Fold these 4 entries.
Entry 1:
Amino acid sequence: MSASPGNLRAARGLTAHALLGVGASPDLVDVAQLVLCELYGNAVRACGDHVPLVAEAEAVPAGVWVRLHDPDGRRHPRRVPGARLDDAEAESGRGLPLMDLLAPGWQVVTTPVGKQVRCLLSRDLDGAN
């Protein structure tokens, strides 16, 4: 897909449909959609509008993998020491701390055609252990 508001809505919808179809809880689906949106927004900021993206959501016994691939292998998202979710003055910069909270251990992998950001959302997030 190319990055656009309409395609983001479609990716969110497909994510929900696929994950609910394999029995993921609505809460876990909501978190997967939130993470997908954050990764999508970061890719657009790094690469520009209409960049080609590949989004994946995969249910596994441990939870849900969310992966987003973009063509820019040079610019990787970086954790910013001291970044906080509760900074009322910040106009941006909450996304990666949110990723750290929801998907600790998220990682960026350089690929032959760009990079992939991937994270595992634990089933513990769904409240239905």
Entry 2:
Amino acid sequence: MTRRFTGTVNIDIRDSEPDWAPFEPAKAPDGAPNVVYIVLDDVGFAAMSCYGGPIETPNIDRVAAGGVRYTQWHTTALCSPTRSCLLTGRNHTRNSMACITEAAIGFPNASGTIPPANGMLSEILGERGWNTYMVGKWHLCPDDEMNVASTRRNWPSGRGFERSYGFLGAETNQWYPELFYDNHPVEPPDSPENGYHFSVDITDKALEFISDAKAIAPDKPFFLYYAPGAAHAPHHAPKEWADKYAGRFDMGYEAMREITIARQKELGIVPPDARLPGLNPIGTNETRTGPDGLPFPAMDETRPWDSLSEDEQQLFTRMAEVYAGFLSHADHQIGRLLDYLEQSGERENTIVVVVSDNGASGEGGPHGSVNEMKFMNGIPDDMAQNLAMLEELGGPATYNHYPNGWAMAFNTPFKMWKRYEFNGGTCDPCIISWPAGSAARGELRGQYHHAVDIVPTILDALGVEVPDQIKGHEQSDLDGVSMRYSLDDAAAPTTRRTQFYSMLGSRAIWHDGWKAITNHPTVSGWGHFNDDEWELYHTDVDPGELHNLAAEEPAKVRELTALWFAEAGRNQAFPLDDRSPMEIIMTPRPVLAAPRERYVYFPDSAEVPESQAVNVRNRSFAVGALVDLPEPGAEGVIFAQGSRFGGHALYVKERRLHYVNNIVGLLEQKVDATEDLPTGSDQILSASFVKDGQDERGMATGILTLYHGETAVGSDRISTQVGKFSIAGEGLSVGRDTGAPVTADYPGVAPWAFRGGRINRVRVDVSGQPYLDLEREAVAMLMRE
């Protein structure tokens, strides 16, 4: 609270009395603890060793050994919505985060923009004297604000974080991430060839941020939001980390579930009589159709392990090994953070919270993928091609995701996965350790809680009240309740009575140990919500949601259904949206600049995200560069858009102009000039594609011609990609190829910047209306969850 000036002001300073209090920055109370959030991504309830899982996480286990693990802690079932809860203490729909930010629909429940009335913990603590840092995944600003021309109101810096470093969207390539640093985009400091990995990089930055401030103000506490990309797809891990798990998943996901539940019983994580649900607990294409005859979503079916071929089992097993290596590698970086806190003497008085933002991901579908961009472009996976990439899985040459059978295994003992309001989507790891503030060590807690409860818990521990206003905005009431009571009292009843859930058509309500939930499949397009069947579970004794008691307790079903509608109204949860991916992606959304027929780009500018860049898909286009070439010998990238998993580039190599169009990493179509480059000022080098047809897959076909000025110097027939070049990141750049290079033809390591001449500007001309394969782009959007 700002203090009124109480000094004395006269004409002469000699007759005046100063009062510094109104002008001094806030100071946290002496001895105030630090706070560290460690927010994992798509890590299911049963992945980590301290929850009975098969993946070694010795450093997260260190946190658990110094605190408590919750067995009934819940999320929203999706990342952006949960992260909004973790930072505001309000339910996701009140945060306008009914879905991921890229799926905003322009209603108060789903705009992708958290209202300023719902202040974040970073905003509260920053105004109370804590340093505030964010590293890793943000995913809390709408798609049209994830670029350098946008407002920064929803970037970390706009929501109370003094320093930040990471990526803004749902996912990124862990070897070639799309990075921002504070308020501007930057390129990775090194390459994977030199050992670069995103998890290492953000840990370096976290330690840098903390130590920079501690050198000046060693007693000032900090709040660190540490959010690695692990273990969201793509599952990228150093090979030696994946190799540590060689052979450990050979038994398959069904057998792994049995092994895991046995461990969980030994640890007391689940009741002794807990059992596993079936592999397809809510239906398949063969068993269920929607009210209008719509099919059950194929991506949500799981194939029995014994129905797989030997090659499929070999591939799926390696996918699990890579995922495990990815999470273990991230755990190792968490260990570096913990080591720093211990060596600096900060660990004892640091509250460490470790959570996952939702259950394990089923977005890999029944088959998984070596390169998700194939699926996004309607190109079926080929087993021979996938097996050829077996040794490359997890490396820079792949963009991989495991099949959904492993999601079931890593969510043991629960049903389903991320996106669903069954416990497989919402019941997640939560570990809290505060050595100086709690005597609990290595204990379990069974109280029912939710992501909205973390902010009240932290504020309770710090003795900080929610302010009436933040930056002039009146603050709304919190939905969360403090969990602090449970840290040292395992027997205390939960202070949470009710929790509301809604995600992509899946709905649930928990109240006093009972849960009502619809078995409505997500993103199915089924609609008809009033016709939904509500199931009933006594989750205090049946956490796996196996025993549907709806027929035995119809009054309880009516009570909870009515309560859901009351809570949905209070939390502005409407309209409900279970539309198909195609319909969701067709939703009109704000854009910074309307599509145009001519785009001009300049060298040394920030990379342009694909969503804000020229769209050349399935249309004629021309890429022309105005360059100065004072003498022979110029080389390097002139223009690049996309990556090795899909993109195109114009470049100079060995005195010749070249163009490559890479279709999802499967086919590099290269067109070479037949003449050496001219020299002189104001030379125009260009590549022109004239569409003359379309193949059965929807790919445009035509002739690509290279030009020096008006002189054609080479041509060939090519096809162009149907869908987006990338799921997230990997945009357009001039004078270099940032990220994963479009082609392996570059002689040097990317970005292989242009040299020996000067690029003045690049113009991209397009004509006609852009063709959008809406189904492909919709699936791409949903894979960004």
Entry 3:
Amino acid sequence: MNEPAEPIPVTRDVDWGTAKLLPDVDRPRAWLLTVEGSPQSYVDLDDPTHLEFEYAQRVAHVLDAAAEPDRPLDVLHLGGGALTLPRYVAATRPGSRQRVVEADRGLIALVAEHLPLRHGSGIEVIAGDARGELEAAPAASADVIVADVFGGSRVPAHLTSLEYARAAARVLRPRGHYAANLADGAPFAFLRSQVATFAEVFTHVCLIAEPQMLRGRRFGNAILVASHAELPVAALARRAAADAFPARVEHGPALERFAAGAGPVHDAEAVGSPEPPGGAFSVG
């Protein structure tokens, strides 16, 4: 009997640069997606609940805590990549309805060809601008909005403003959650402004990140979570503390101290997240 062929890397020019799909030698049908050398997604086609990236695990904690187990959710994903988190929701909450907005049409085609979705996944992928599609979405139509949009290695400026936060609040249901993957380093001018911006719109805000990142010892990812309903901070803290790379949940007075002096930003003065230090997120 012939042995199955070893998976081989795939390289393709997409709208925003060069994308690569790199097979994981330790997991037979798992792939790392990079764009311009920056890791974008990791997908295990045999086990969509396996989340390799720490930030994805932390967003998954928010998704897990957003409703009782197994209850289907309506989720709007801003940014698609290889559809890691939509696949996770489809596996953990069958019957969920998910809409994914991805600006890069070439990337959508690459993922559809090499990492196809399971039949009946309930995931719809559309090409478009995240802000434009958010503003066009029906009011109170989402239980969760997941924002994971990077132009290169930076969060685009038009997804950081007070006007954008208000658009997200309009689309969420009264008990809905917004979760965004952000990146910053000390002195945290960007991250502090994002806390202030979303606190201006939402009643409750928290951050999930590794302690050393929040202490300014390295550049890294932080998950900003916002809701009009009280956030499940205790549940999120337990889950984050149990990760292989433990994180903590910053909220209440501690988060107010972190963001002290920062104010909300409007479209006119909004800026994208800072460029990561050389090599911070790159893959050779």
Entry 4:
Amino acid sequence: MKRFLVLGTNEPCSIPWIVIAPHEGQAICNHGQDLETLNRRGGLIWSEMIAVLEDRRYIRMDESIARKKVEEIIKKQICTVQMIKNEDGHYVPMECCSMTNPRTSSGVREIDEIDLPCGADCGNDCNNCIIQKIMDEYAEITKQVK
């Protein structure tokens, strides 16, 4: 996956290109350069990036606040499937689960039943299932792992 670099961080940092690409016009307006050029030159600092992502002029702001805002935008755009951890420690799409009612189950909302689209043809051996590995990895990549 193509990435756009973040300037001014202590560790190498980047965001998915698909998140910033639709805002290239604002990058040109704010910085006089297209995204490819900005990326070759090291990217943008968080506060510059949030201005581009919000399609507005750059305004100086606290970098930690800007970073949180960028991360929220990324999560909304990238993380479209909400995952939940099952009793075996694996992650499954919440839309495949029926949940207990907290009012009738001691105040706890838990998975009541899971109906996975894979059909469990593997004999429910989720530890060796490639589909399960993908779902666990998706939960991790989208920062839904708790």
